[in-house]
Amino acid sequence: MLQCKDKYLDQARKLGVGEDEKFVFICEEYHTELTKIATDQFPEHWHLWEHYASGVILSETGEKSAQVEKLKNAAARHAKDMKGLFRDTIILLVNLLRAAFLPSSLAVDEDGDEANRSERSSYGMWPEDRAISAEALAECVRCCRETHQEIASLNLPSGLLDPLKVVIQDLRVLCLSNFLQEAAEEIRNLHTKETWNVEEGGVTSLPSSYNEIISKLFLFISDVQSSLPGEENIFTRASFQTRLSHLTSILFISFPEAIERACLPEETNDFKSREVASAKRLVIGMSNLDYAKTFIFPPLLERLRSQNFPDLPRTLQVADESWLRVRNNIFDVYCEQRVDPLVAVLEPGMYIGNFSWDDCAVPISVRSYIKVAIMKIITLHSEVFDISPPLIKDVMNEVIRCTAEEMLRLIECVTVWSPNGALQARVDTEALRECTKVFATSKSESFFEETLATLPKDQVKYNSKLLEQLKEDFKSGMMFQMRCFQS
Questions:
Q1: Which pTM was predicted?
Q2: How much of the chain is in helix, strand and coil states, percent to nearest 5?
Q3: Which among 34, 104, 257, 288 is least buried, having the fewest CB atoms inside 10 angstroms?
Q4: Strand, helix or coil at 20?
Q5: For residue range 405-417, what is the model confidence (pLDDT) as tens digits?
Q6: Is the backbone of residue 268 left (phi > 0), alpha (psi -120 to 50) or beta?
Q7: How far apart are CA 372 and CA 402, in angstroms?
Q8: Which residues contact 455 (CB under 8 A, 6 or more apart)?
Q9: Residues 173-190 pLDDT 10s
Q10: pLDDT value at position 70?
Q11: Which pLDDT value is given to residue 215?
């Protein structure tokens, strides 16, 4: 086994930069040959000892019973030494495996005993800057399990194979951790594969790619996660439960992060990203997020629950917090790009042509700044509807809330009103409110109510008929446009 170690360790040390795949191949060859040596030689030596200890080795040659008994007595005196020899062989196998795949488990303090450092070095100092894939570790687990099953079939003393069982458990834990980390990294990098081609349902290919990674993950971890007879449950260790909870949370966190990086890149060097307008990317990103939360997260959580993954309530909490943070961030950026400019046109439009609320003619219609604002709201509605109709409610609720809030601010800034000005402002406010009522919220309604309450009421009753007539004329003229909100 030591010669096997020297052969493959020498190959590994000769590798150059960028040859990680060759390193993984060398490790796979190493554990395959190492475990084969163990399964070939250990049973042979054990059977030889059994024949010696029982006297069978002499009785088969026709020796007299006295000589057989003498041999058995001699074997009994050396039984403890032989048991120690076989135990040391198993420990050597285990430590050779640990040195290559679990080097931190053999760590020796640099200031420690020279003998300990020498022993550690004898197992091989494998390059620790080389990554071993989870798939390669899974193959190592399989070989070690086969070795354990082969040797366990022998009539061995109790506890002799415990070190091998422990290293199998350690390898399973490492393997599962690496599978989860690799999947999370693949998910995190999905932003590089975003094409911005909207498919049925208002989403791109990213949610589907995310789901494929998750499905592939569960396929890969199935064997490693499942415990064979006599093996410890992989989730038993408290220290691993904490780490596993963190790793499973990352499976949920990584997708929103990928969406965020796709929608809000630090530098947009990708031609496809530059080709698609920023606002459109944000709407697509929100649609992808909503789809994942509705159709991918619940089945993923259920699969984790069915396989007894620990601390799932905490995982769900972290997932919800991450999703909400990214969703709100993208939504806020979208509002900054599309809603804020829309609201900003109200004030200049309100005072275009040096209009004054304390010196204006009798109202004959809703003023043009309200019509312009409504047309911009319709344009925004169409922009969102073309990509993802389910997002309409969220976006339009915010648009109307911001518009109503800005109307209140502008009206509150007026210090002097003429009767005609007050009536005109009421016509404008009520027309805007009526046209957008399908997307009204308690907050937007509150702003509209405050706006109307701020206006002087002296002429309202007297001009109520004119007020209603102007509103009806406006709604008739805008009937076609208003149908857009019913889409």
A1: 0.83
A2: 75, 0, 25
A3: 104
A4: helix
A5: 999 999 999 999 9
A6: beta
A7: 16
A8: 411, 417, 422, 425, 426, 429
A9: 999 999 999 999 999 999
A10: 60
A11: 93
